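Z., the sequence and structure:
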Amino acid sequence: MRPSWLSASRIRSAGGFHYTEQVNRRLPIWLRQVMYNLRGGFLVRPLAIAIALGCAGAVLSSLEESSPAFSASHADPQVAQIILAGIAASIMTVVSIVFAILLMSLTLASMQFSPRIIISFSRDRVTQWTLGIFLGTFCYCMAALPAARSLPRPVAPWLTVLGAMALALVCVAWLLFFIHHISHAISVSHIVDRIASETEAVIGDVMPKPRRPIHLAAPPIPFDPGDWHTAVLSEASGYVRFVDLRRLIAVAKSCHVKAHAVRRVGQFVPAGTPLLMIYKGERLSPEAADELRAGFDIGPSRTLQQDIEFGVLQIVDIALKAISPAVNDPTTAINCIDQLSRILIRVAAHESPEPHYYDPPGILRLTLPWIGFEGLLDSAFEQIRLYAKADMAVSLRLLRALADIGSSTPAPEFRAGMAERGRRIVAGCAEKLGEHELRQMRSRLETLEKIAAAAPE
């Protein structure tokens, strides 16, 4: 079925697509990109909370000012001014402390673990609520302060002052909670668990179907560059962060062409290099080529919109830094391996995204490569295997992780691949470790090979 955003706005003309419809069709991916960026930063939620509390202070003080029944005529307006001004000044001091704690935490986590995990801190809701509540309290006091005056008639908005005092108490309690939260948030166990949870959410979006017991893979479609001779070049350099499949299929169908994506999600595309290869590209107008480019969200850094590998690599970065000679923290590396096995078990339990897309059935419109289970397995364990040849504890945990993954998947080809990786782990450690350590590793390798040889249930 044709997407509504295309059928409602597409008007065919001699030159291709009308500019207005082109802008309208850009909105879905543009809005997705903006909402993802705003949801993951310190802008939307803190700003919304600050504006809401500021408006509450302005409305409440205005109500007391306009309705004498709500205001205390016998109260001293200067007392209200002092309280509101004192709370506002104190809150701004606390805000500077919160920002200092946050920046210190970001710097520490970036240096000790990986600079790529900073995005996880910026998406932390407790941190966003902390900034929002403190900034909102300041806005509340500043919005209510003009209502407390002596001329032309004395006004002391006591209800507004009571609200400011209540917010000040909330800020004190929330500051204690924030310090407690940030002390847990910078622990490596919490960081790795949060990255793994976010990656599992992406797996649920990209790979929603559970793996079938018997998977009949479609025969590969031959790709001959001589036939797919028209290239749609990328106009910007960056990483492919999101691909709008419906848009690409709809544009290819409307132009009666076939499109082959050269780069998958997570890969870097330099400007001027092919982004798509088109079969029968003479049917493609420049406007339609722009529409195909608009189906790719390209940015300076990778994100977790569709990129499962990015979540895996964040954990791998932490593990590699932990087993480096400068840090020498194998316990952290073991924790990372445990979380990586959790992710890969989830991937093995779901069907990989289809690389071929048809519309209508039987007519190929788009081929899009996805990183498969084997690719994720290499990304997760290969670098750790190479750097952990002299570390028995980490290598043993790698073998256990492979055994856990193998025992959870019925696919025999997956099990065979993990047994081969286990042999490489033992062979690499034989160059660095003694016979006593290798005896334990060979025992776990035998267990892994038995799992690989077992018939699927």
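Residues 124 and 369 are 32 Å apart (CA to CA). Strands lie at 12-13, 16-17, 230-233, 238-243, 258-261, 268-269, 274-279, 296-299, 356-358, 364-367.

Let me know what you think.
H.
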